[in-house]
Specification:
By secondary structure, this protein is an alpha+beta fold. Helices cover 27% and strands 31% of the residues. The protein has one domain: 3-Layer(aba) Sandwich (Aminopeptidase).
């Protein structure tokens, strides 16, 4: 049974996510929201990076097939960003060649805002997804008060 550990093991979660995403980033101030399996191994991590008073970037890293994308996990991660951090915008940059991440972004319901052509050194495009505070309030993954 997977369990949410939130932002415990923060730097370890960031390091795990970087390896899963094959990136040097995320960069800047980072905060994580994580899920682990029964052995305490990470199965999913949401990383909020480049956090400012107004916005943050967000990245998902997960082990395929672990059923991590639950309303509770995503809802708590969004609540961390929009509720506790009080930001107004989340930006999700995704490599064009990362079809799995692009599919997750579509399933998640984040609007695609554009494409930065050949944005990566290897020539890959960067798809930009965004979620604004006002969109979060009516988002299907937002946790509702009981």
């Amino acid at each position: 049974m997977n369990r949410i550990i939130g932002n415990e093991r923060g730097q370890e979660a960031v390091d795990w996510a970087r390896k899963r995403m094959h990136l040097e980033g995320p960069t800047g101030k980072c905060l994580t929201w994580a899920m682990v399996d029964e052995q305490g191994e990470f199965v999913a991590v949401v990383v909020f990076s480049d956090i400012s008073d107004h916005s943050a970037c967000f990245h998902f890293a997960a082990v395929p097939g672990t059923r991590w994308m639950t309303r509770r996990f995503i809802g708590q991660a969004l609540d961390l960003a929009f509720g506790r951090l009080k930001i107004k915008r989340l930006t999700g940059p995704i490599r064009g060649s990362n079809s799995r991440a692009l599919a997750i972004a579509r399933k998640f319901g984040c609007p695609r805002e554009g494409i930065l052509r050949q944005a990566f050194p290897d020539g890959d495009d960067c798809h930009i997804y965004g979620l604004l505070l006002e969109e979060y309030h009516s988002h299907r993954w937002k946790l509702r008060p009981m």
